[in-house]
Amino acid sequence: MKNIINVAQLAKRFGTTDVLNGIDLTIQEGEVFGFIGHNGAGKSTFINMLTGIINKSSGSFEIIGTSDQQLDDVKAKIGVMPDISNLYDHMKGIQFLRYMGKLAGDTRTKQDYIALMKDIGLEGAEKKKIKAYSFGMKKKISIAQALLGNPSLIILDEPTSGLDPESAINIRKLIVDLQQQGKTILLTSHNLDEIDKISDRVGILSDGKVKKLGTPDELKNNTSSELSVAIRTNPTLTSQKLAELSANWDFNVQFVTTKKKYVVVNVPHDNDIAKLSKELIHSGFQLFELRMEQQSLEDVFINSK
Ligand SMILES: Nc1ncnc2c1ncn2[C@@H]1O[C@H](COP(=O)(O)OP(=O)(O)OP(=O)(O)O)[C@@H](O)[C@H]1O
Ligand SMILES: [Mg+2]
Questions:
Q1: Ligand 1, atom 25, residue with closest C-alpha
Q2: Nearest-CA residue for atom 28 of ligand 1
């Protein structure tokens, strides 16, 4: 597969503060790449360098086969929704999109613009001035703006933050549709379930570096070599009872946490799960449920610092 973004040792320093300390990253054509990291980690800084909004301090990158020195040559092929929107407030929604579309060489008809507004969830707001839009509506029109001019690479900095759940679902569907049309999408989000659902690969940014990189499943499976098991019994198993019982068992079982009526434990091997269920029943517990707990991307994120 072709790389659409190729970043080598990219760094950014603001004054005396190193925000990005040498990012190495490739993003492949046609993938949805989710970039995550805590507030202030440098995600927007990274995106702003890639799109030419700010200058790099050192390192280099290539986008769509073009070096960062010639970024202007490919800007028309990149659709961007930056973290801080650059909307013309005094314009009506549809007027703004048509104006920006013209600048981006978009060939849409007026009807197509109306359809775009509908797709993005702004039906009925076409003739309303942007300054009268709510936060979420402004967000949606910024996303629509990023799609103008048929870009092959779409970069969305927190596209769903502040959107109501239904609108966020629609934006996720839109992202999947865009990918099916062959586009590459780089997005950031603090909603890790969302990143998990729609990203082919995820990068975790921390301390100015890409600390972890992989498919959501790779990241979730690699965090721990132990197997996590959630158990629901009657009476409910406590950490204390587990400690008492397990003192006599010939395998290791480690208490992790209690979640509602479940207790979550770690065991080293598959066959320990069979032993565990046998021992619990033997000790008089009614075993209602025993299931493998997969790490969430949130667990991976918390453990990546
Ligand atoms: N123009 C600037 N001048 C000085 N410092 C800046 C500037 N822009 C960003 N920073 C600093 O760079 C760091 C990274 O900011 P950035 O906006 O890239 O983080 P982020 O990962 O996008 O965070 P968030 O999740 O909150 O959007 C922060 O410490 C921020 O204060
Ligand atoms: Mg940001």
A1: 39
A2: 40
